[in-house]
UniProtKB/TrEMBL annotation:
Keywords: Cell membrane, Membrane, Transmembrane, Transmembrane helix. It is a multi-pass membrane protein. It comes from the Bacteria. GO terms for cellular component: plasma membrane. Its main location: membrane. It is found in: Cell membrane. Pfam families: Polysacc_synt. The lineage of its organism: Bacteria, Pseudomonadati, Bacteroidota, Flavobacteriia, Flavobacteriales. This is PST family polysaccharide transporter. The chain crosses the membrane at residues 21-43, 88-107, 127-146, 158-176, 182-205, 226-248, 273-292, 304-323, 343-365, 377-394, 400-418. InterPro entries: Poly_Biosynth_Transport, Polysacc_synth, WzxE. It comes from Flavobacterium lacus.
Length: 423
C-alpha cells in the first residue's frame, strides 16, 4: 500500500495525471496513423518513414541549436529577474533566427544528397526536403516557445499546446496519407508539427510581452556561452544518434530487405508510444527539479524516480509483452506478424533506457559536458558495432538485441559514475 501511496502522492504523478490526456490523445492518434500506414504503405513504406523520423529527431535539436534544456533551466532560474530574462529571450531568438537562415541554405544546397541517403531516390522525394526547409523556422520557434512555458512552470499550458497541436496534426496527417499514400505520410511528418508554432506562440504571448523582450541590445554573449554547453551536448546526440539508426536501418535493408527494416521500424513506433509517458515527465518535471537541486536534493530526485517511475514502467512493459500479438493486430496488418519476435529485446532495452534516463539527464541539468560526451560516445560505439554485426546474423532481431545490450552497458556505466548519489 505504501508503494501506491508514494506514487499517488508524488508531484510527478499530479503532473503526469494532468499530462495523461495529452499523451493518450497523442498515442490514440498515433495508433490510427500507424494502422493507416500499415494498410496504405506496408512494411517497405514504414522503413522509409523510419529514416525520415530519425532525420527529424536530428533536426529537432538543430532547429533550436540544442538550446531546449538550457532554455528550460535558465527560464526557471531567471523568471524573477526581468533584465536577465529579457537577455535570455533576445539572445536565443536572434541566435536561432540567424542559424535558421544558414541551416536552411545548407539543406537546400545538399537536398539531392540528403534525399538519396534517406530514401535511395534523388528526385521522387526531393519535395520532402524542400518542405522540411519551409517548416524548419516554425518548428524551431515552437520548441523555443514551449521550452519557455515549461521553464515558467506553466505545465497546463504545455499540455494545451500538445493537445491542440496533436489534433491539428492528426487531421492534417490523415488527409495527406489517405490521398497521397507514402508521399503523404512523409509530408505529414514534416509539415504537421508546424501547427504547434501558432499554438505555442499564442500561449507564450499570454505569459510575456514577447516582442518587448526581444531587442538587439539585449543580446548577451555570456548567456550564449552558457547555452553553448547544452548546445554541444544536444547537437552531438542529435547528429550522432539518429544517423546511426539510419545507417543501421540502411544496412538492414541491404542485408535482409526493406520489409524486414519495416518490421524494426514498426517495433520502434510501438516503443515510442509507451516511452512517451516517461520522456514527457523527463522534460516537464525531472529536468527542472535536477536543475535546481544539489547534494541530498539530487539524491532524493534519483530515489523518487527509481522508487516510483521505474516500477510502474516495468509493470507496463511486462503487460505489453504478454499482449504483444493483440497489439500488433490492432496497430498493423497480418503481414506485420514477424514484429512479435522483436518485443523481448526491445522491451528489455527500453527498461534499461528508462533506468539510465534520469542519470543522463543530470549531465544536462548540471552541464557536465565531458562526462556526457564520454558516456554518449561509449553508448553510440556499442550500438553501431554490436548492431552492425548482430544484423548480419539475426536480421531485425539483431537490431533490437543491439538496443538491449547498448542500454544495459550504458546503465552500468552511469550506475558506476553516480554510485555516491545513489547509494
Amino acid at each position: 500500500m505504501k508503494f501506491f501511496k508514494d506514487i499517488v502522492g508524488a508531484a510527478w504523478f499530479k503532473i503526469s495525471s494532468l499530462n495523461s490526456f495529452a499523451i493518450l490523445l497523442r498515442i490514440g492518434f498515433g495508433l490510427v496513423i500507424s494502422k493507416i500506414l500499415a494498410i496504405y504503405v506496408g512494411p517497405a513504406g514504414m522503413a522509409l518513414v523510419g529514416n525520415l523520423r530519425n532525420f527529424q529527431t536530428s533536426l529537432e535539436s538543430f532547429a533550436t541549436l540544442g538550446f531546449q534544456n538550457g532554455i528550460i533551466k535558465y527560464t526557471a532560474q531567471f523568471k524573477e529577474d526581468n533584465e536577465q530574462f529579457k537577455k535570455l529571450i533576445s539572445t536565443v531568438t536572434i541566435t536561432i533566427l540567424t542559424f535558421m537562415v544558414l541551416f536552411g541554405i545548407g539543406l537546400f544546397v545538399f537536398k539531392e544528397a540528403i534525399t538519396s541517403y534517406l530514401f535511395s531516390s534523388e528526385n521522387e522525394f526531393e519535395i520532402i526536403i524542400k518542405a522540411t526547409i519551409f517548416s524548419l523556422p516554425f518548428y524551431g520557434f515552437s520548441l523555443f516557445f514551449t521550452s519557455l512555458i515549461n521553464g515558467l512552470e506553466k505545465y497546463k499550458k504545455v499540455v494545451y499546446i500538445s493537445i491542440i497541436g496533436n489534433i491539428i496534426g492528426f487531421v492534417f496527417s490523415l488527409f495527406l496519407v489517405l490521398n497521397y499514400n507514402i508521399l503523404g505520410a512523409l509530408l505529414a511528418m514534416v509539415l504537421a508539427p508546424t501547427a504547434n508554432f501558432f499554438v505555442a506562440f499564442f500561449f507564450v504571448c499570454k505569459e510575456i510581452k514577447l516582442f518587448q523582450f526581444i531587442t538587439l541590445k539585449s543580446f548577451d554573449k555570456s548567456i550564449l556561452k552558457n547555452l553553448s554547453s547544452y548546445s554541444a551536448m544536444a547537437l552531438f546526440s542529435a547528429l550522432t544518434g539518429p544517423f546511426i539508426y539510419i545507417f543501421l536501418r540502411n544496412h538492414l535493408i541491404d542485408t535482409a530487405g526493406i520489409d524486414t527494416a519495416g518490421y524494426w521500424e514498426s517495433m520502434s513506433r510501438i516503443s515510442s508510444y509507451y516511452m512517451l509517458f516517461v520522456s514527457s515527465l523527463m522534460s516537464m518535471y525531472f529536468l527542472p527539479q535536477l536543475a535546481i537541486s544539489n547534494g541530498e536534493e539530487t539524491k532524493s530526485v534519483f530515489h523518487n524516480y527509481f522508487k516510483t517511475i521505474v516500477p510502474v514502467f516495468l509493470i507496463g512493459i511486462i503487460a505489453i509483452y504478454f499482449f504483444r500479438n493483440i497489439i500488433i493486430s490492432i496497430l498493423f496488418t497480418a503481414e506485420f506478424q514477424p514484429v512479435s519476435k522483436l518485443f523481448f529485446w526491445q522491451l528489455m532495452g527500453d527498461f534499461f533506457k528508462v533506468c539510465s534516463w534520469i542519470l543522463a539527464l543530470h549531465f544536462l541539468a548540471k552541464k557536465q559536458t565531458l562526462a556526457y560526451f564520454v558516456t554518449e560516445i561509449f553508448s553510440y560505439f556499442t550500438l553501431i558495432s554490436v548492431g552492425y554485426f548482430a544484423i548480419n546474423y539475426f536480421d531485425a532481431e539483431g537490431a533490437v538485441m543491439a538496443h538491449a545490450i547498448t542500454y544495459f552497458c550504458y546503465f552500468l556505466v552511469l550506475l558506476t559514475y553516480f554510485r555516491k548519489q545513489l547509494f
